[in-house]
Amino acid sequence: MTPRPPRSTVRNAALAVVAGALLTAGIVVPAGGAPAVENSAMDNIIPAPESVQPDPATTFELTQQTSIQATGEAAEVGEYLAGILRPSTGYPVPVNRGALGTGDIALALDGAPDLGPAGYRLQVADDNVSVHATSTEGLFNGVQTLRQLLPAAIESPTAQPGPWTMPGGSIVDKPRFEHRAAMLDVARHFFDVAQVKSYIDQIARYKINRLHLHLSDDQGWRIQINSWPRLAEYGGSTEVGGGPGGYYTQQDYTDIVNYAASRHIVIVPEIDMPGHTNAALASYAELNCDGVAPPLYTGIDVGFSSLCVDKDITYRFVEDVIRELAALTPGPYLHIGGDEAHSTPEEDYKKFIAQVLPLVSKYGKTVVGWHEYGKAQPQGDAVVQFWGTTNADPLLTDAVARGNKILASPANKSYLDMKYNESTPLGLQWAGFIEVADAYGWDPGSYLQGVPEESVLGVEAPLWSETLENSEHIEFMAFPRLPAIAELGWSPKGAQNWESFRQRLATHGPRLTASGIDFYASTQIPWAK
Ligand code: IFG
After folding, report:
1. Confidence (pTM)
2. Which of 76, 79, 319, 340 is catalytic?
3. What digits encode the pLDDT tens for the residues 299-316?
4. Is 272 helix (H, G, I), strand (E, B) or coil?
5. Which residue among 173, 194, 224 closes a domain?
6. Which residues contact 424 (CB under 8 A, 6 or more apart)?
7. Residue 340 appears among annotated catalytic residues
8. Are 383 and 334 in contact (CB under 8 A)?
9. Closest ligand 1 atom to Cα of 337
10. Is the per-residue pLDDT at 35 higher than 90?
11. What is the model's pLDDT at position 41?
């Protein structure tokens, strides 16, 4: 279904014509052109829904009496929604107080099958609001849209004056790609459980459903492995710049996995190998070909480290790590990295990866790797993650021919650690500057040459942390470009429209501010006040 242009665009254009006609007829139009037109919140949703039918004659008001009706499995989503509404309205917003009444919100698992597992239908009528889906994931996605129909102040952590009105109408929506990911590099700089949970809450607002955690690198090993305790205890004891680093205990990691699951986000853990392994090599001398452990590393060079491909202990190490991590990870994916193995001879690299691939399958996971690992010809549903700065690579066409899935994260479009422009205080620029229009201006389904849409698993927005030290830094680099990537992953094919997106994004400024998100106010966006 071709999505309608946002009503505000149509209405404003119509009003401009009317104003012009009035002027011609000698009737004075108020200064400032056509009278301002109330832009319905239904027109400002990000990611843009599949179809939106505003009903300007209808308005719903959330009041002190409003309750949420969400029985059975839906109750968890009801409680999540209540957790959003209670602090900012100051209303009790009970869940399942009793029968659905006037002024209530209903979340119902009675959605039509054509919505698919992640889709939803949202109805806003005068006397109630309802979300219908076939799964709690679909209800959760509907709730992300529902919250965007309320005033920006709904995102405030403290009670704000109302009124809490929502524009009437109906929305039917489902995602284009099933895999819409963010990545957080917790290896260059360590981010603790609370900081990861905060980022999970922020990306969930834009229907991101995967979080790839880059758990190991030259500068740090961030996940406890019981069979190799020095990896985290010693290998996790520093970070870029020499700070204290840190690591997740297995309970911490489980806490993150469970929190992500409660936001319908699947964790994709990455242990990068055979390169980007100085922290592991520094932790265990026996892993090094020469038996000598290098010092811990706190710089930002890449490509200088490699596991020892010819030693048996290397594969015992890799198997122990994969076994323990797979047991802690309910999601289907395990990422083995494979990038920038500049210190591993090509034939050794292919031999190493070929010996690791069966281990990922042995412990029940589907392998993901940066696109270089395609040299080892992973079979079947292996996922090849493209991070190049071009839109073509023979490794991609070979992967498609093998039936692999491609995860699109071109570094010059989706790398959130790239500076916005030359004056951006944080980030790198090796892949070029990425302003909001650049992050938005590509189509994951057709961008990669020789990769048809059906081979594209989805999109990912990696955030590398060489230059990032706290949550404010994460937020400044991720917002507002992550919403752009999220729209490319969710909204219907052909719905990309920069003018529409920038107008809609402008209204999200007050929402991000109310949420306390330290976003970059790009000069490309006419931010609302
Ligand atoms: N490339 C490296 C990352 C990181 C990045 C920073 C990949 C797959 C540059 N590898 O991106 O470790 O250093 O932008």
Report:
1. 0.93
2. 340
3. 999 999 999 999 999 999
4. strand
5. 173
6. 433, 520
7. yes
8. no
9. 8
10. no
11. 83
